[in-house]
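TICKET #2291
ISSUE: user wants both folds in one file
ATTACHMENT 1:
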Amino acid sequence: MENQQAMDCTIDSEQPNLDLGQLQEYVYDLASQVKEHSTILKEMALLREKVSTLQKENMILASENKILKEKFISVSSNPGASKTTVLPRVSNQSTEDFNRGSSSKDSTWANKAAETRPEKPKRTSCLGWR
């Protein structure tokens, strides 16, 4: 009750000669300002969340950048380590000859395996028919 009286005094002191229409307009104007401030506060909260997310992403990127710099320095200080070494061929045989040779060996092996495999027994039905 005291708070209401304090507000009444404030309104009376700020706008001493208001009629009912002017007072309603004043209250609507205040309500509009409250709504606007509420919207601004919500937007600020969203922006704070976005800033927090961006700061976390920045920390992750800074960490990745540090790792990449260390790798770059490591490779720069030892340039031979960054090159891949190609091993020489063991034989002079071309790949076509090699592939043909292996397939003929594979088929010979498959034929020998088929010859030594035991014959499967024929299935019979429940009635004894073949």
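ATTACHMENT 2:
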Amino acid sequence: MVDVEPCPICGQRLPDPYALTLHVEEAHTDDSPFVVRDDEPATPSTASLPGYEEDMKEQQPQDETSMDANNQYALCPEEGCGEQLLLGDINEHLDLHEAEDVTFQEQNHQPTPSRSKAKDLSALHTAHSSSSPSRSSTKHKKIRSPSHTHSSHRRRVKRHSPAGKENNNRIGLGRKFLFWVANMSQGRPSKSLRNGSRLGASELGPYAYEDRMPAWLFKQLEDGPPMRQIKKLGRDGRYTVQEVVEGETSGVLPILSRLSALDPRVRTAYYCHPSVLQIGKAKNEGGFCGFRNLQMQVSYIQGAKAPGYEKFPGRTPGVLQLQDWIEKAWDQGICETSRAEIGQLLGTRKWIGTMEALALYHYMDIKVMARTFGDQHGRYAHQRLLDWVEDYFRSSAPHDLNKVVTTLKPPIYLQRPCHSMTIIGLERMRDGTRNLLVFDPLYCAPRIMQDMIDRGPQAIHVPNEKFMRLYRRHETKLYPYLDFEVLE
């Protein structure tokens, strides 16, 4: 008889493996085929959405050769970034670096897509390069990659779209939380373990096989981000001393909500609890997006004094501390198959995903719920995700008629193929499209953010589309992904 583990999401104990699998499907899987629902509305025609079809065409690979080329990693040429990226990600990544540098003089600037000449991809395939161009030398330069699709933590899937057409160029999660639950409930290891091997670069990133990160990086993480105290003249005329931690910015959400309110294209916007910090990567550290997202989740727990806040006294826990807690969770049998798939985590640059974040929450005895979204019932995965996020925020303010609503809801941990982010809100535009609002840990707050915070939201009088580009993820940018996972 198989020893059935309790549900890893809610802890409920079930009598047998079949009951556990069914419980996860019915209670924790948003698009489960085992749950009877009312008929959902038909998918709205995307032909009516401005630029939708054109954007989709731009994101499609041209042939099988280009798809093979998309497996290559390249070092971001932006000075101080250090991120290893798939070639298909670089153009958008550089666009967002540009948004980090927005200035007050660009308040009314409406950016236009860069149309620079194609650049030889081989020049960027520099995984072991010791130097990178300066910030000024990379400004406005884009790399024409074979494909605009993203592809790590991924697998290519030939699957039929909701409209009945085959999509060979959309990508899905290569390591799904739901598959792990199903395998464990039936007493068998995951596919990677049955094959006698650990997960590789497609799931764990370009440093999947390293035993230890470079010594300089380990010391940088061990020391923690630089911290300084500065004097500020408050709006009440009094001086205050503020503690500034490099890479961490508080007070961002009121600025973003003000910019949403001023944007005439926005019909409605929702934001999460304003206590969450925006946390970006340190200089040259490379990945750690999953850990930076966990830090942002913890910052909400600390700031809002949410359940479990006493587990996180003092400053935001560092990457090495989070790695240690996840390994201690494995020691206690929590999501322990991850250890066999990943190997040693502490002191490495291996990527983590939903299962490791879930392990940390369970280790801290903090209740969370995992959900998955895929193509289902005539709607794409990204549409189902946006539907759920909109309902998540709207449910906390059902009668609020304001254009912009700041709720007390926690931020959401989002895992998509290749990357994870923290969802802080959603915008519904007047043309019917939607933007996810996110803190992306690959980027720090723009350089002018602290000045805007010091002046206060009411000092902002015009919208700034370029500034908001760092935080908006339009639905056309989410289309290429077959799967999403969230923790709420």
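RESOLUTION: both attachments delivered.
EXTRA DETAIL ON ATTACHMENT 2: Residues 215-487 form a domain with the Cathepsin B; Chain A fold (CATH 3.90.70.130).
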